Structures
1.
Amino acid sequence: MTEIHYLTFQVGSQQFCIPAEMVVDINRNCDCTYVPGAPESIKGILNLRGQLIVAFDMATTLGINAELNTPNPVSIIVDVDSSRISLLVDQVGDILSLNESTFETPPSNFPAHIRQAVLGAHKLNTTLLIVLDPYLFIKGLIGNSNPGNTSASDLLILSQ
Amino acid sequence: MKDVLPLLSNVSNSISLRAGRSIKCVLILTDMQNNDEILTEFILEAREILDLLDTEFIRLESTPADNKLIGNIFRALHTLKGSSGFFAFKRLEKITHAGESLLGKIRDGQITLDPPRIDCLLDTVDVLRIIIGGIEKTKLEPVGEDQKIIDQLLAFAKTQMTSGEASKKEELVKEVPVSIASPVQDIPVESFSVQKNPASDSVPEVSNQERAYDVSAPVKVNLDTLDRLMNLTSEMVLARNRLLPFANNSKDLDFSQTVRSIDLLTLELQERMMKMRMQPISTVWSKFSRLVRDLAQECKKQVNFIQIGAETELDRALLDSIRDPLVHILRNSIDHSIETPPERIAKGKSETGNVQLKAFHQNGMVVIEIIDDGAGVNYERVRQRAIQRGLITSALAQGLSKKELIELIFLPGFSTKESISNLSGRGVGMDVVKNNIVNIGGAIEVLSEEDIGTTIRLKIPLTLAIMPALMVGCALETYAIPQNRILELVRLKITNNENPFDDFYGTPVYRLRESLIPVLYLDQELSIQKTSNSAAASVNLVVVQSSGVRFGLIVDEIFNIQDVVVKPLGPLLSKLTRYAGATILGSGRVSLILDVDGIAIESGLVGKIQANPIEQPELAVNLPEDEWSMLLFELEGLKQIALSLDRIEHIVMLNTEQIQQNGNKEVIYYQDELMHVVRLQNYVSGCSLIETESKVTPALTCVVNQKTYALIVNQVHDIILVPQKMHELSSPQRGIHGCVIHQQDVINVLDLEEVVAMHNVHDSTTIYPLVIDVQATSQ
């Protein structure tokens, strides 16, 4: 039974997590340049120490709210498939060490379009912690058009 | 991994040597991934050897008795054979072996090298190259029949011997490939461990020999690693930038000193990194001697190929993109320009033609010249051809100058050659070359004298990664437009809320000097929500050129031109064709670089043009007409004076306080260049001599006799198109060439040569010689 470290973060009122080993950097440098014509989920491009980083607005990507509702979002830089992206979230939480045994894949009636972001969930005591896979929504973006159609209601149902 | 292959090849060589070539072993690696990596190494090495062989064979042709050279070639081929044996590439092995037999004879002095043999050896290299290419694609040796080339090699290897000896040797030679081939498949995997030990014993003596060839080989670095290192360095530079203010404010001496040393080290690191990206141009050129030789032979011409400045360095990305244009130009030179030996003798030239390839640095650009002493451009034929192809009317063609005729060569589908050879003349020609060069921010220039020769001059920027761009503002964001796409900037004042653009049935167009150009609003093209910009007092129009279409791009603000470092947007945004990349501004913010071509295509401008391709050349090139462009400006007391646009390099704003005295002349050091300041009003009739008081003054920079002059003017007005007919002045006026008529206005035309000549003889007295012999003084 191996334990995996997860970084939790908050978007709107929802808790999510990603594998902590993907995380390169967490900062408040969210001053990104808007790229007209880019998919809706992309907020713009950031400069991380001379490197261009595509920043995803997680609220739009996950279809939770129209916008992030904190005035001071946090940028989580993750390494995905040898390129780096930034996830703009409202707040960063703890790093949790979770056992593989509590992990569940999405149920089979899980909407297909959400699968482009959600890997599964960990059964916590009171709630389900949604595990995101940044690679999935990047892959959707490179391969096909706008994957960010995940709607909030679907996610809320999922975490009930 | 790098050392493994030569070692292994030595191993297999030495085995075959020890066992008297009767037994051949093969080492089979159990790890498949390892094998792949070794294979990649093998392909790289093989390519290197083939390139080397190409150049060395050509050298050998001119100095056939050079034993050291033959030895080198022999060793290189031998290494290749050894490595091929290791991978059980039987075709490679057989061919290299046959080549080796011929070379061995040559090395031992039994056979002298003659052109047919060189040809045969070069053909061999070609066949090897094809096979290597196949291996690279499929990881397997491609199937093919090489008996012909092998027979030829072997036949050449025996022809100069006595018949008895020859037949004996032939048997031996023929025997060998078979004996190599058959055991290869049969050797079981277990033989690996058995054969390895005796082999490694004998490695040192063989590798000594190999080292003679390997000595100067530089370390090969993966491009990816290099790029990453480059990136890290720039990150380091930025981190240093953040550190510097702390050091400046700190009172701790130790800390400041440490920061200073970090500062210096980073600077050094940065410079070294930039240098590392640079490669000598010889990496491209080395293959040209073979190309020229083959072409010359095919055209039955004699060509002496000279390379000068092969050590000139260029960014490696640029090197790739100049290869094809250079090959094309060389082909043209040899196929079209250089004459056949009888023709040359008839013209009183030496039998052998000269083609010179020359590279050097100039003004932060790399200049590459291809000079030949061949027939040159037949201007009359260009004229005829242009009329035949319907590119221009015959009436218009008669009035064209040589320079204008040369421009026609760059039109798509243009060729003066009557017959189409398989070398050149298929009509995909100089237009493609020009396009390639322009795309990397370069320029091309052709100078040609009939029967004397042609010089083609390419000007290439040092690096692709950095390019000058105009920063513009649109909807609160800053965008960069590559400068090489920009033709001009127009600022239109809006009075009474009038629309400055004409309405072409719904599509806005702008009258730019009597020609209509379509207008695009940048915010609409990028579909940006415009905030609020209702009452702008002026409109900024950036006139750009994209694949033959001129159009205006409307932006909110125009800032400055600066060198930007181009960074790709990455796979996530690569679908957005309107951007060429992004750059990081001094403030740390990211700014998008617009792709003018992409915008033109997305807006439908280019698609429409391409649907009607016949008209494209006319749009792409401003066909020489009876008109020329002049810059209209104002001097103190003289409202309208003009100078041909061709003569002007730049329009700059000079700070008059920076003008310095140099003897009795005024000079200014502007943008790393020393310019002679010429106050035009002192030299032109009709001007008043009042000194202007303003601190900043516009100036036109011109180059006359390789000196740069800054002509101080009062105000720059416009670019005008005027009829080329110059009206002579009844009595010669100082500094004025004549006058032209523009919309009923008489406009004086500046005589640049005369002004410069006057400036050069002008001493501190205010009495000017009234008549100046321009010819004498301008020398």
Note: Residues 143-160 of chain A have pLDDT under 50 and may be disordered.
2.
Amino acid sequence: MTFKDSLDRTVTIPPKIERILSLQPEITRIIVALGAGDRLVGLDYFLRHDDHLFRIIYPQESRLPVVSKPDDSVNKELVVRLDPDVVFASPSEFQAPDSIQRSLGIPVIALSSLGHFDKLLGEIALVGAVTGLEARAQELVAFFQEKIRPLSEHAASVPPEKRPRVYLAFWSSLTRTPVFYEPVNSAGGINLAENLLPSSLGSVQTVVTLEQIIKWDPDIILIQGNFLPNERMVMVKQVLEDHRLSSVKAVKSKQVFYTFGFWYWWDPAEVLVETLYLARMFYPEKFGRLDLAKEGEEIFTKFYRQDGAFSALWKLLNLHEWTRQ
Amino acid sequence: MSVRVNNLTFSYKNFSLHVDALSFEVSKVTAIVGPNGAGKTTLLKCIGAVLPIEKKSLFINGKDIALMRSQERAKHISYVPQEHESAFNYLVRDFVLMGRVAYVSPFALPSREDIRAADKAIEFVGLTSYSGRYYSELSSGERRLVLIARALAQQSDILLLDEPTTFLDPKHETEILELIRKLALEKQKTILVTLHSLEMAFRYSDYMVFMKKGGVVASGKPGDVFHEPLLKSVYDMEMKIIEWNDRKIVLR
Amino acid sequence: MSGQDSKKTQLIFLFFLLLPFLLFVFSLSIGTYPISPRGLIRTLLSAFSPSSFPDIPSAYRDILIRIRLPRLLLGLAAGAALSVSGASLQALFKNPLVNEYILGISSGSAFGAAISIVFLGRAFPSQIAAFLFAVAAVAAVLFIAGSAESHFISLLLTGVIVSAFFSALLSLVMFFASPYALQALFFWLMGSLSLASWKDLAISFPLMLAGLVLLLLLRWRMNVLSMSDEEARALGINVRREKMLVIGATTLITSAATAVAGIIGWVGLIVPHLVRLMVGADNRKVIPLSAAAGASFLLIADDITRGISPLEIPIGIFTSIIGIPLFIFLLKKTRKVWL
């Protein structure tokens, strides 16, 4: 079989894939969701050491050896010893897909969704094809699309001037923002940073000046909340008390909230919950009745077939704080 | 005003200097001569406190130099190095002005007095028209004069000059030596100068000190000590002295 | 002494001492949020009595007083601090190629900022750790080099070694840091005036001011210190003590500037050179002019970063882009030798 990856490389893989090494957290989560978790032979550094969610949705991860290093580079010897049939990597220079493929002779597929749903769903389909679990992949894709549809249909019906203008303060800084974040768009909001950089660059983020934020005058400010509460570098309270932003609409009307944001790429279940959460935030009259706890539970169970995963996440990230309007 | 050396020692690596007792004639020129490596420059630097010395090694007017603070000591003794290398290029008048640093408190700028003193020093060495030129633009002879002017600006009674005539042509060599004599006669400075030229030392000094291998082997008035046997023992070489008028010429 | 020369020097002095003030006023009008000069004046006035100027949006006041003013003041102070520091150390080490970071300040403060960001997170402001480790690096250099009197070359060499050591430690910390922590660090490493708030300035500004005043007072002394140690000692200064004073002051102001603005390169090397090319090496002129020219230089660089884009571009990029060609141009233009 041959596939085209995110770097536009054409990769040929053997028909039967029994041993998979995924160095890309998003793909690892997808593999577990598809039910092919037992085929994983190794794990990347971040899911083992920095991620709080993965061990909840896939407790068996503790048996897997860590194959990448904190700086994202790959322990090639270990890869050889683990003898995977295929490797999934991030399209970054540290993981150097071509170099690994060339030196180890193992096919490497580089994937990342970079904030786009179609790419995320494409990944699910691709991994489904690689693992021979197309049916399950199709099921998840359809589920995802079904959940999103009412939101995006509603979003399309709202004229642009009426959509909430949102500024996303992601990662560890108030001024660092993603140039494309589809959950906001699908939920019917406008990501103010969206046209700052030409899309041909393929960058995920940029840093803006504080004045630019004030100039935009967002209706809502969303802060990345996926960090554990005591590790968050930017907090809602701090933004609300920042005198420099006192003229901003979002600050004046206290419309500053946490949202999940990127977390070593995406968790497909989590991002779905996030989109519902945002839709409810942006259009309370239309989606106010969404029961996030219930939806979250349903979505996580559908994806990971693990009870209580979402409520564990709820506790970890203090989600009850977020939903207090 | 007396300068007295008492059991001065200094050593580094393979060399050690030891001078038991030595007195220098006030308001006179004392020439220190000897072969290379005899310790002439080292002795000069010790007296100038450029190199650290032990207590009770050097007394000026009965005061122990080693106990004096740099600032005070600089008002008594100034030292003119053989050469000056610098990464930065100063104007002659700014260069000479630096000689006044002992009179300027750390957080102040030189006063009008200081500038006047520096200008007078420049005048004495005859470089007034060069005042606004850069040090690097001057010839070696002129640069030596600037170094001397800087030492003069210190207004110290004792002047130490290290090989001030080396590498200079005869005319400039004579100019500098005449200047040194003038300093002793007109300004009553006590001058110690190391020279490599025996003839010049004989001609221009009032007192001579012969050094060899880190010690003083002889000292006295030139007429008394400038003899062939002494020269031979100091320089390990046969030398012949020829007299002409009252000058002495050394032939090897 | 040429009368024309001195007239020219006076004009240069006048120009450079006025320049920072003019630039300061001009820079107030630059930024992503458009405020007209008239709007600026009315905003400043409205700060005293908001009720008389009801049409001035509060955003104007926030931007002018809470964002631009502290940023510009930091630019002035850091520009002056880095330049004077570079000029002073160049005199001290008798080497025009020395920069203000030579004794380990950049590596030390980078390491301090890194361990603070990575291990302490938001619990501890990284500026304090950055400052402390910068000072610690210099202290280490002084300690290791021992009696630095007649071995000033070893002070430089020790500075290089200690810098390398802290750089290695920094690499180690960065290796283990999560990519999210690293992002905050990268920005600081490239230098930016956007990182500082009034609170930061309240502490670092007085420190920089104190050190600058001290170095300004010592400016004539630095001429003497730029002589060989032997000559300086013969001329009557306590070389060791005065060197320590200069090193202490330059460490204070460079660490204070770097702790809040990150590492901004080239300022301490280029500005003093430019100044010497214009007025010669006499530090009575070089030090104050370096302060003024450095402040102006940084303000201009920051104006460019703020004016060309809504993106926050690190200022270190511009100090190199402007500084290096400017340096080459002036070098070729003048035939005066300052070395």
Note: Chains B and A do not touch (no CB pair under 8 Å).
3.
Amino acid sequence: MTDDANDNIGGSGYSLEQLGDYLDGGRTPAIEAIEGNAECQAVLASLERFGSLSRELVSRDAAEHTEIDETWFSSLMSSITREVKAGRDIPLASADPLTTLSITEGAIRGLVRAAGDSIAGVIVGRCALTDRAPEDNSKGGVAVDVSISVLLGTPVRGAAEAVRQAVYGALLKHTELLIDSVNVTVSDVHVIPTEGDAR
Amino acid sequence: MNSLSQQIETLVLEMPGVVTVFSSGSLVARGALELTSGSASRVDVTGGDNSAYPDRIVVSVGLDAAAQAPVTATAIASGIRATLPEGAPTEIVVRISSVTGQP
């Protein structure tokens, strides 16, 4: 992740930090360069989903001195800003030869991230779409690889399966991709003690 | 074609499932267009200066996850086509740039 990518999200001229400030300010007054930019909107959506949990993590970390990897947040933000880039146009079928319909790769990655984040106790770390050739025990199509962080106490296997199903369902609903596989890797576990914990 | 682009933007924004319309071109190009023509439309309408229809219409949209993207994209294209003279050979490009909300 280069500094340039974080400093100029989607060519808007606004940095990740400025988008965070804009969100904190209630998105008012509205800034056209942000509101009219798909990549800025995707970053803002991720920041909104992530915001409440990150505040809780930080406050509990400070209060209870639990160990949270300092690079985790910046790594997550780097993944988000990289993945929101529009990328390729993935075609959608059209019966009209003069009409071209598509959904951007960035929109699909955003869908995957939102589907994963919708599962309780889960934050999506990275997601990647990879074209697969119809060989090597593969039917071809697209392989979706998702890494997630699971809050301690959340059943890991169940969370991973729920993410897999949510991602698969979202892709079936919004794309016409041939899904080869949805692979979920639990790469982090974070601690958020509840008030009832004796820790 | 500025009025047409604004008309299409309004039409698209009123369609079920559409949350927003994004700028299709670069911000610099759009800024220049606003300065020279006063148009603030995010829909890119090109060509057709000497005819009754444009050569190409490009619209980039953000959708609500409650709406199925392929179905909504088709509806948007059909809606745009309906604003053109019958048989107009205008190329219509509908790009879904974001899908937000709970899938």
Note: Residues 7 and 18 of chain A are 9 Å apart (CA to CA).
4.
Amino acid sequence: MYTEISRRQFLARGGKAALGAGLAGSLLAGCGGGGGGGQVTYWSNLEGSGPQDYFNKNIEKPFEKANKGTDLKVTFQPPEEMDRIVRTALQGGEGPDVIMTPGPAYAQEYIDANLFAELDEYSDQYKWDDKLLGWAIDLGRYEDKLYSIPYQLQTMLLYYNKTLLEDKGMQPPKSRDELESMAEELQGEGITPFAAGIGDDPAAIEWFPTVFWNHYSGPDALYQALTGEIPFSDPVFVEAIELFNNYVQKGWFGGSREQFFSNGIDAVHVDLGDGNAAMNVEGSWFLAEIDGFFKDSGDDWDWAPLPPLRRGIPAELYELGLGSTISVNTRAQDADGAAAFIDYLNANKKRAAQWMAAVPSAFNAPLPFSESDFPASMDQRVARQLAALSEATGKGNFGYTAWTFWPSKSDVYIQDESQKVLTGDITAAEFCQGLDEQFAKDRKEGTVPKIIEPGTA
Amino acid sequence: MDVDQTTVAQEAVKQAPRGGLRRRRRLTAWLFMVPLLVINVLVILGPSVATIYYSLTDWAGIGPAEFVGLQNYRDLLADGDFWMAMWHNVIWTVLFLTVPIFMGLLGAFLLSQIKRFQMFFRIVYFVPYIVASVVNAALWQNILDPTRGIGSALASIGIPFLDGVAFFGSERLALPSVAFVNIWAWWGFVLLLFLTALQSVDHELYEAARMDGAGRWQQFLNVTLPGIRPTFVFVVLLSIINSLLVFDYVYIITRGGPAGASEVVGTLMWKEAFERFEAGYAAAMGLGLSFVSGLIVLIFVFLRRRGWEV
């Protein structure tokens, strides 16, 4: 099954990544190592004795076997506390040698504090430029120096209850008109068009401005705004937020505005699986657990690219996101060993594909995949998604997720203030104006991550 | 040397070892205090001083801090989100000064009237207080779920007035709903405090009041309340301070949402420190809150010195 998690779910589920790493370890056993022959410390947020034992058996030991003399010391930290524990430890001059962050915006804070080592030398040594996706590795560069490696690629998808749509004689929408007519028809029959809710994680509202800006405003406009060429107060961004607000007020997302604010993520998934809702806009991380929500109903599911919401937007467009990054601590005793461990986890296509097939919800390597790269045991819907993402981004059909390409303060602004548009406290125009002001401050402070241009992947 | 002088000298000789003994006892007492003092310096005084320092800096929570003087405090005074969160803390405080105290008093009074099953009810009411807040929160999130909770269950038996009500998703209901969950967990503790205080009130006072023709209500006003006043004031003080410092239930259930409708200073501070990377500003916010808490304690100390039995 497919493996990917969001930055948002990083703390809660990042431990599963370590489980995935465990499998990779077993796959990589016997490889030649490049460790420096010392101790490498790695903090995992893996939960539960079973997964932790599995990790120890399948990643720790095989890595050490492949890198003679390198002692990989793994410590399991509580997932919810992981980022804060890492932050506190680093501030106190401690912390692991291999550091996982919840995404580039977080990584940049650590880089600004001189806590991450430069990785260019290791990139040359392990040929990461050749192995990893160019745009993905570019995201780890700050001022032309490489500091972090993407660990979990993500995108936004349209999931749907296939059985339900087939019963209604419907197909997933391919345009705004199709989407709106479907939503009206479904709502008229008492079915929520889109399962949605941010009750247990209000910050997850950022998924929606992300989707509406990419599929209404378009990646070119976003690129221009993110590079400071046009303001976020431009009507093309305001209209996208108005459209999102309009859909929420109609009850298309979650059933009603108040339910959108109230529904927890599990309730959202249950609604989709039970057929109370027809579709769900969520990140690719949901592929890891979607099966479980369809067991009770026996319905089938599938995914489709999110449709364009305005003319001129590509029909198949994937927002790019990074759920986490890994870096080497500047204070690492054995930086060579830490870099070897990163290479071991990330950089081999065949092994990564096997790992991604075997371990749900752990990993999505930043590697150029095609569908044939994945083993037959992998769910074909997942393999199709991974290949489609790789191929579309290869053609330059990619967009930008808020949690990856916006600086953290602008991202938090989006999370907090977009809620106020839905409650009517502010207008979409005021929201976009405020974002523009916050983004201008972030640009001035130099906290905007590297923005890759559409068509350059 | 006359007799009196001899006596004084003998007394002085007797006193000398007593004084030494007293000093030794004091020294021993202080030695026993040393571990606690060291721990307090390490875990309270040290971080407090560090917080004061960081509140005067522009600090992301990692890396070097840049001294900015009182800028964070100036920003705080002009921060609408902070004052809105503070207002929510005030609402929360009002709720906690009324609902659980009334329920606690009433419950304690009723429990004091029964002998059988009193311990059973004590335990039942107290259990939510000792259950982890995350468990209580999850329980009530499910009960108050707009589509799967009590509202839809009642609707299915013909009582539809709560059907579809999103208690935690409504800007109007979110704050009182979260407060309700916290009150549910808290009031049993208040009840036990009051019950213990009630049991210490001299029963002869009630008999005397009855002989003077006082009814139940007059007994409550003139005997019970004065008798439990120290406990009452303690509960009031505890409620105010807890309300100002509230974090867990809001964070677990709504994270301050929707659209900041249930944001309190505690959750706003968390966001500043760990999401916006404004740890210096968050430290200033925390000190602002501590200042208000300290002010309230000082008021109680002042009242005590003025002769109030608090």
Note: Residues 319 and 400 of chain A are 5 Å apart (CA to CA).
